[in-house]
Design brief:
The chain is an alpha+beta fold. Helices cover 31% and strands 20% of the residues. The protein has seven helices and five strands. It has helices at 11-19, 30-33, 44-50, 62-77, 82-90, 101-104, 124-137, and strands at 95-100, 110-117, 143-152, 174-181, 194-201. It has a five-stranded mixed sheet with strand order 1-2-3-5-4. Strand 2 (110-117), helix 7 (124-137) and strand 3 (143-152) form a beta-alpha-beta unit. The longest helix is centred in the middle third of the chain and has 16 residues, at 62-77. The model is unreliable at 157-171 and 174-203 (pLDDT under 50).
Length: 203
């Protein structure tokens, strides 16, 4: 390709032209880069930034990161609504039920988020993650309370017996209530099923 520089171009300008001459040959698969399910994993943070995602955690599993990006457009369209809160939490594989104050005779302008946790367990990191997502997607004038339900099952069979235990840590949150219901089925030492509910509030 002939040079587009004038005859009096400096050596630096000619060198810069030569260095950038092959930039058009660099493949840029825009369709894949903007697709949250096809974008290379190491570029996902940049795609999240380009789509103005409010909450991002590099420790999330790759599948969660991709789903969070995929939900971002719909979330932004409805940001400030409880639908946006629920859709954002769904990307974390958390099933939620949101109740407005007028549906439960609560204080005016408040709502409750009840989340069912199936697999990852409940700890302070998860609670803080949920809180950040809710805070960044709800309407700013609304206050909320968070109720977490842990649904876990275990089937352990032994010749003589079995034991089980659960530990719940909610720091730095205040634990309002912990209710545990256990259904045990003993047959040669087999025990299964536990259901716990945590209600936690920020200090």
């Amino acid at each position: 390709m002939p040079s587009l520089l004038p005859p009096n171009a400096t050596a630096f300008e000619l060198a810069a032209e030569g260095a950038s001459a092959r930039i058009g040959d660099v493949p840029v698969p825009n369709a894949e880069l903007w697709n949250p399910f096809n974008c290379p994993a190491h570029l996902l943070p940049w795609l999240a930034w380009a789509l103005s995602i409010d909450e991002w955690d590099s420790q999330w599993p790759e599948s969660t990161q991709r789903q969070f990006i995929a939900n971002s457009v719909a979330v932004h369209k409805n940001k400030g609504t409880l639908g946006a809160v629920k859709r954002a939490l769904a990307a974390l594989n958390i099933n939620t039920e949101i109740t407005e104050w007028y549906e439960s005779d609560g204080p005016a302008g408040t709502f409750t988020v009840a989340a069912l946790i199936d697999h990852q367990g409940i700890d302070s990191a998860l609670i803080n993650n949920i809180d950040r997502i809710v805070q960044s997607h709800k309407r700013h004038s609304a206050h909320y309370t968070l109720s977490l339900a842990l649904n876990s099952t275990a089937n352990n069979a032994h010749l003589l017996g079995s034991t089980s235990a659960s530990t719940v840590t909610v720091e730095p949150w205040t634990l309002l209530a912990l209710h545990t219901e256990t259904a045990s089925f003993l047959a040669l030492g087999t025990i299964s099923a536990a259901h716990s509910i945590i209600e936690a509030y920020p200090l």
